[in-house]
Amino acid sequence: MRDSYDRCLTYLDDQIGRLFKELTRRGELDDTIVIVTADHGEHLGEQRLYGHGCSLYRPELHVPLLVFAPGAVPTGQVVKAPVSLRDLPATVVDLLGLAADSPFPGRSLAAAWSGAPAPFPVDSLLSEVELPPEADPNGGRSPVCRGPMLSLVADGWHYIRNGDGREELYDFEHDTDETHDLAGSADKAEVMRTLRARITEGSEPGRPFHKGAAPKAFDSPARLATRRSSTAAKRL
To answer: What helix, strand, coil percent values describe the chain, rounded to 5?
Structure first.
């Protein structure tokens, strides 16, 4: 299975290479933002699980995120801080110079590679899964089969609340395989109380996307293009 997955990644890598070659041929590479990511990770035997949509362990949450934007993003820089895909639309708008007019929820990730990472709102690192796959690849053993799950990555910890009420806690920075559950450790009681409160706050029904002004209605690409032209003109 891992070999098959690796072959898929090799094919994808080749296709991304073709994209960059074509952009270079057209002379458009330096004026193009390229973002490579995924909508979910994949279990390949970790925690004795396979597939996706079955848990909130790290193999499902940790996905690639490559941002190529000449002149705006430093080449080769690696950001280790956990971030959310939810912030990508706001990031793209920021890279286009339209941050003040962004209609999207979330916050730009530009600060993460500028050397001064800003704290992200609690729901930026909140994940949830509600329904098991129609055909559970784990024969009914998937954690989500016990009910909707929530997880929060914050302050170097990964807190998971299972549908049956069971809680899990992992050292996000040092226990990358998530094999040592610390939820029952007496010396982690305060950490558990803090994360429990934060995940409850972040999962309240009707909670706004982010603190501050409500997000504006989504603009059409044409309107955003007009704003971009206007911004460029002002800079001239």
So the answer is: 40, 15, 45
Q: Which residue has the higher pLDDT, 129 or 209?
A: 129
Q: Are 97 and 231 in contact (CB under 8 A)?
A: yes
Q: Is residue 110 a contact partner of residue 95, using CB atoms and an 8 Å limit?
A: yes
Domain count, the chain: 1
Supply the pTM of this predicted model: 0.77
136 in any annotated domain: yes
Give residue 180's domain range: 33-205
Distance, in Å, from the CA atom of 209 to the CA atom of 211, rounded to the nearest integer, reads 7
Cα 126 to Cα 149: distance, rounded to the nearest angstrom = 11
> Which backbone phi and psi does 149 adopt, to 5 degrees?
-120, 150
Q: What amino acid occupies position 149?
A: M
Q: Which residues pair with 34 in a beta bridge?
A: 68
Specify whether the CB–CB gap between 133 and 141 falls below 8 A. Answer: no
